[in-house]
């Protein structure tokens, strides 16, 4: 039944991809995905620090209710990231200290909630990746409805069960399962290019001629120096 279903994940991003992406800045991955996908600026890291990379277990939750998140924690295993579409509602917290400790004990790679969390002092003191849209002390309801391992969308970013979920200080990004190899190759090339640019800046050899070329192309007049 739509709104009340728990499905089995039919695929899962390979661990080799998770490891390869783990050291690449989310901004670089976003750039090579043409800057067209993002979890939105409200999804901020609530933990002290550290990157996140893992396979998605998706949850679609009624705003203010975390019953299906509890069930997803039971279903998730090492390296998984629970991604929750809570409708962006910040009235009730859907995740807190007890669930955090359970997630750590299960070996999860992180939790992403388009919703609020609580016990922020505990979350902020640790390195377990938690991304959320806000904070409130008001607790959740536990009655449902909700769905697990269905397609969800957060601020236009579609997440399918088993997709690769990345996070760092800049936010959250989903790399679709079928595109991981192509995106990885492009992201690695982007990293190499930026390393070259940084080296040129430090050596005083940074080429900025593209700026004036672009201004000329768009018809912007500049005064002589």
TrEMBL record:
Please give the cofactor(s) recorded in the UniProt entry for this protein: a divalent metal cation
Signal peptide span = none
Cross-referenced InterPro entries = RraA/RraA-like, RraA/RraA-like_sf
A Pfam family per the record: RraA-like
SUPFAM superfamilies noted in UniProt: RraA-like (SSF89562)
What this protein is called in its record is Putative 4-hydroxy-4-methyl-2-oxoglutarate aldolase
């Amino acid at each position: 039944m739509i709104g009340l279903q728990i499905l089995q994940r039919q695929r899962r991003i390979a661990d080799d991809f998770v490891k390869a992406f783990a050291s690449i800045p989310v901004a670089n991955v976003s750039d090579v995905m043409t800057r067209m996908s993002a979890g939105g600026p409200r999804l901020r890291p609530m933990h002290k620090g550290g990157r996140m990379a893992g396979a998605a277990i998706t949850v679609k939750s009624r705003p203010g209710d975390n019953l299906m998140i509890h069930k997803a924690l039971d279903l998730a295993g090492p390296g998984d990231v629970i991604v929750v579409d809570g409708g962006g509602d910040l009235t009730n917290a859907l995740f807190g200290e007890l669930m955090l400790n359970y997630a750590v004990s299960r070996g999860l790679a992180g939790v992403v909630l388009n919703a609020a969390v609580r016990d922020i002092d505990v979350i902020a003191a640790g390195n377990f990746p938690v991304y959320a849209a806000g904070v409130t002390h008001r607790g959740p309801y536990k009655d449902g409805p909700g769905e697990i391992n269905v397609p969800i969308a957060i601020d236009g970013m579609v997440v399918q069960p088993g997709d690769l979920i990345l996070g760092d200080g800049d936010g959250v990004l989903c790399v679709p399962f079928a595109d991981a190899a192509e995106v990885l190759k492009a992201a690695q090339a982007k990293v190499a290019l930026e390393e070259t640019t940084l080296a040129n800046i430090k050596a005083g050899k940074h080429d900025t001629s593209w700026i004036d070329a672009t201004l000329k192309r768009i018809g912007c007049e500049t005064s002589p120096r």
